[in-house]
């Protein structure tokens, strides 16, 4: 069972969410700082003071992670790439950038923005530490944030996809080859790095460092899965970006304003058999009705109730010139299986999820046949 993320706030129009796994790492970081780091370097304080400072440090760490991800997001938006949200979770944070970069240059700039932000934050805390030389807990927080932002930048620059360094590597290869080849190579480096982390986890376990072994192992498994998933998503994006909605849409005649449910069920549904139908409103605007809503109306009322009366305004649609990738992403975002195809104020038809999935399946079958 997967819990929904907790929505926190919006920054520059980007929704920031908190995954429930964040509370695990928040506790572990606070515990490590309160029980080991601060007592070792700044002794003679109470238990409550250490835990308070540890909690504040953990929150500021994730504020730094948020700024790192926000940097990626703002650069992506600057180049017209939509960003749905930023999720903070057990391994830090991730910006949900919805489309691939249009060029290697944009890919490089989006990828490098995060490490640059973290290096700048590290330098900022270094300057603050110089201007505040007292050896107290506040100085400890400053030094911790300086070190952790530097470490965040360096770790993300490892050339292992989908880390920022892997995306930078991908942009460099992409400039010489194609996107899919670049993703395949950088994804392979991500898998290798993941296994290196898992190996470190095994060595830590042999040495009796259970906590270190757990973190190395979990991070390695996470990166191994993420590199594989990211490659498959890129492959999917490349496939579906080649095709336009007009090539696969199902032509559907709109329901007129005065047509009753009985007329609709007699003349429209048997012919088209889609789960949603476009309806022309009395005001000339486009509406849609779903079979689910129609079935909620008692059949004894079908002769007197117009389809328009159980219809809703069309809010999500695609144009015939949009890619199948955009159509699928809209379906996934709104958890629907069919989308109206609209050009101007004219309904042209319906694009179905199963048509897109059938195309993907045929592509993978052909790919397997070529490999064999």
Automatic annotation (TrEMBL):
Coiled coil: none annotated. Gene3D superfamilies: CBS-domain. Residues 58-134, 141-193 form the Peptidase M50 domain. Binds 1 zinc ion per subunit. It comes from the Bacteria. Its cofactor is Zn(2+). Keywords: CBS domain, Cell membrane, Hydrolase, Membrane, Metal-binding, Metalloprotease, Protease, Repeat, Transmembrane, Transmembrane helix, Zinc. It is found in: Cell membrane. Pfam families: CBS, Peptidase_M50. This is Zinc metalloprotease.
